[in-house]
Automatic annotation (TrEMBL):
GO terms for cellular component: plasma membrane. It comes from Marinomonas ushuaiensis DSM 15871. The chain crosses the membrane at residues 35-61, 73-90, 127-147. Keywords: Cell inner membrane, Cell membrane, Cell shape, Membrane, Transmembrane, Transmembrane helix. GO terms for biological process: regulation of cell shape. It is a multi-pass membrane protein. Its main location: membrane. It is found in: Cell inner membrane; Cell membrane. This is Rod shape-determining protein MreD. Involved in formation of the rod shape of the cell. May also contribute to regulation of formation of penicillin-binding proteins. Belongs to the MreD family. It comes from the Bacteria. The keyword Cell inner membrane applies.
Length: 157
């Protein structure tokens, strides 16, 4: 299988995980799968995967969730750029240490999404908006290990 197809398969898998329905009482515990995957690829291949791919994936999330077009694209671009700037530093850290940085980046995503939703009258203030950041940060080490093994297995460079 060609490496480019495997790369897009990981993005498609993240989109499918984003589409999985969640019970209403656990909606705050939904991880940001697409952001998790794009962050890995930006850290692993910063010269090939970057802001453009983050913008495209954010646009797909907007279409998938039926939100405002460009809402997730904006935050994904900001986060991918931040990650691309610090990728050399992030590579030096252990995955558990990287998880903290990922949690902070996903918190930025959640905060910008909340601001847009609150401005439009769709959301009320609550600290639970940061729970997906905590869950995504906790999932980072395992996602990192799985995606790294896929990247090595299929020689994605």
């Amino acid at each position: 299988m060609k490496p480019i197809f495997v790369f897009f398969a990981t993005l498609l898998t993240a989109l499918m995980l984003e589409a999985v329905p969640f019970p209403e009482e656990f909606v705050w515990f939904r991880p940001e799968w697409a952001l998790l995957v794009i962050l890995y690829w930006v850290i692993a291949l910063p010269y090939k995967v970057g802001v453009g791919m983050a913008w495209f994936l954010g646009l797909m999330i907007d279409l998938l969730q039926g939100g405002i077009i460009g809402q997730h694209s904006l935050t994904y671009v900001i986060i991918a750029y931040t990650c691309a700037v610090f990728y050399q530093r992030l590579r030096m850290y252990h995955p558990w240490q990287q998880a903290f940085f990922v949690g902070v980046l996903v918190s930025i995503n959640q905060l910008v999404d909340f601001w847009v939703d609150h401005y439009l009258g769709y959301a009320e203030p609550t600290l639970m908006i940061f729970m997906p950041a905590v869950i995504t940060g906790l999932l980072w080490p395992w996602s990192f290990i799985i995606l790294r093994s896929v990247r090595r297995m299929y020689a994605i460079r």
